[in-house]
Specification:
Layout: H1 10-17, E1 19-21, H2 30-38, E2 42-45, H3 53-66, E3 71-74, H4 95-101, H5 104-120, E4 125-126, H6 151-167, E5 171-177, H7 198-203, H8 207-214, E6 219-222, H9 240-250, E7 256-258, H10 265-268, H11 273-283, E8 288-290, H12 297-313, H13 318-339, H14 351-359, E9 361-363, E10 376-380, H15 397-403, E11 408-412, H16 419-427, E12 432-436, H17 443-455, E13 460-463, E14 476-478, H18 484-496
Parallel strand pairs: 1-8, 2-3, 3-4, 4-5, 5-6, 6-7, 10-11, 10-12, 12-13, 13-14
Antiparallel strand pairs: 9-14
Length: 497
């Protein structure tokens, strides 16, 4: 085990303790191990760090050899946003599918099983669940990551998810406070704005966070969004009115407040990550998430030095930094103790597929002939948002090829001119299964489906995003998410007719 570096002063140790950095590769670099010895409390993992469960377990064991109580964080929502299964697709449906079933016992069981798998790999802090109420159907970054558009539904499933995850000894981090659902801009790319008044916010956006706090969520993640009714000048991550007055004061939350990734353009593009980090801590945040895109020691050094200098200059009160650091260490102690207390209950390895099957909705818009012969699966792929990424496969083609040998699959994007006609040509008379994702947000998909359904009315449509458009296709199958298990459930529904 690395001993603490001689001469590392209290300010530096506290500055390191509030950072949640990432790194490149599937083994821990020397600089990261050294920083753990100097005071770093938390490390963030992403898909680039994971090759297998065995490799991940070895990695986290190596981190704990340097700091036994290290918080190992991950962005593992299940569903569309997976890091554990980034190359295969998730074994768990996402929030929207769970909301569609609306069985809180099921949601708790899914979260508990996900938590067990994380804990088995040595991960003890999950940047999930998303508690956002997806009230804007055109939202480009939340969508199926939300339990739904109804605040009550989102609240009860957020609480169930928090309880399930934490029953496995994995700290939940409920996000994105005060709510990212009513946005039409992706905060990875720019600063979104929500113009709802305070009464609407209290009734809609805040309801799931109240439920999460009541359920004991160990952490809450802030959103990089401007909400003028709360603070007309600064985004929530940098707003004392939002983090301290509202979340701490009015809502009574006493756990760890974590920022969303500081390299996201909503913050980095306007303030820079150094200035943004100082402002976030001064506003009431306790942990600075940075590492989704920045993976080097120099980033950690710059942020650490910036925070130390901000204290020495009087811009950031020393007691605020010390309080933030202690909150992080307190959560690390809780997580370390939870690791020593095995989760009660038996593993449920098939719970994700069970949930995905229950979430499938089949609408028959006309006479439906059974699908018994090989088909042509046409997958219409929108550009993936940064949270989801473009590494994870999705669709139903692979499963249909297994169930209906001879099936072939084609992939189409908005760059494909006259995609509908191209699908008909490639299908060569076979029945078409058209797979879409958020058709309502993509005019080119609607046009392609118009062409397909006009020429081939027996086309089966599988919607793997938010099923906002009116059902069409014979039948229309909604999965409420694009996880691997959702593809399995959809393929079964296609063959079942």
């Amino acid at each position: 085990m690395t001993t603490f570096t001689t001469g590392t002063d209290t300010l530096t140790r506290d500055a390191l303790a509030v950072l949640q950095p990432g790194f490149a590769g599937t083994t821990a670099p020397d600089w990261l191990l050294r920083r753990l010895g100097e005071g770093l409390t938390s490390v963030g993992l992403f898909g680039r760090n994971i090759a297998s469960s065995g490799q991940l377990a070895a990695l986290t064991e190596r981190l704990r050899a340097e700091r036994p109580d290290v918080l190992v964080a991950i962005d593992e929502e299940g569903g569309d946003v997976t890091r554990l299964e980034v190359r295969t697709g998730s074994s768990f449906p996402g929030n929207h599918a769970l909301g569609a079933v609306d069985d809180t016992d099921l949601t708790r069981a899914v979260a508990a099983e996900l938590g067990r798998r994380l804990a088995a790999c040595g991960v003890n802090f999950n940047w999930a669940p998303s508690a956002d109420v997806n009230s804007n159907p055109d939202n480009p970054v939340i969508g199926v990551r939300s339990f739904g558009a109804d605040p009550g539904l989102a609240a009860r499933h957020t609480a169930a998810y928090v309880a399930g995850l934490q029953s496995a000894g994995v700290a939940a981090c409920t996000k994105h406070f005060p709510g990212h659902g009513d946005t039409a801009v992706d905060s990875h790319l720019a600063l979104p704005r929500i113009d709802a008044d305070a009464a609407v916010l209290a009734e809609r956006e805040l309801a799931p966070f109240r439920a999460a706090i009541a359920a004991g969520s160990r952490a809450v993640m802030s959103a990089h969004i401007l909400v003028p009714a709360l603070d007309p000048d600064r985004p929530a991550t940098l707003s004392r009115r939002t983090l301290t007055d509202l979340l701490r004061g009015e809502l009574g939350y006493d756990g760890l407040i974590v920022t969303d990734g500081m390299e996201m353009q909503a913050i980095a593009g306007r303030y820079g990550i150094e200035r943004g980090s100082v402002l976030a801590l001064a506003a009431g945040a306790d942990a600075i998430c940075v590492g989704g895109g920045l993976t080097d020691e120099e980033t950690v050094r710059r942020l650490c030095d910036t925070l130390v200098e901000a204290v020495r200059s009087g811009e950031l009160p020393e007691e605020r930094l010390a309080d933030a650091a202690e909150r992080g260490r307190a959560l690390a102690r809780w997580a370390a103790e939870a690791r020593r207390s095995p989760s009660p209950g038996d593993p449920e390895p098939e719970i994700g597929l069970t949930a995905a099957r229950r979430a499938v909705t089949v609408t028959r818009t006309g006479p439906t002939a059974p699908v018994t012969a090989p088909v042509y699966a046409a997958t219409f792929s929108p550009e993936a948002n940064i949270a989801v990424g473009d590494e994870t496969p999705w669709g139903v083609g692979a499963e249909l090829e297994r169930l209906l040998p001879g099936t072939t699959t084609g992939f189409f994007t908005d760059a494909d001119a006259d995609a509908g006609a191209r699908v008909l040509e490639a299908a060569a008379g076979r029945r078409v299964v058209a797979v879409v994702r958020d058709e309502h947000r993509h005019p080119w998909m609607r046009t392609a489906l118009d062409t397909l359904l006009a020429a081939a009315p027996d086309t089966v449509v599988v919607e793997m995003g938010v099923p906002q458009s009116a059902p069409r296709g014979t039948p229309h199958i909604a999965t409420h998410g694009a996880a691997r298990v959702c593809g399995v459930a959809a393929a079964e529904a296609v063959v079942a007719g």
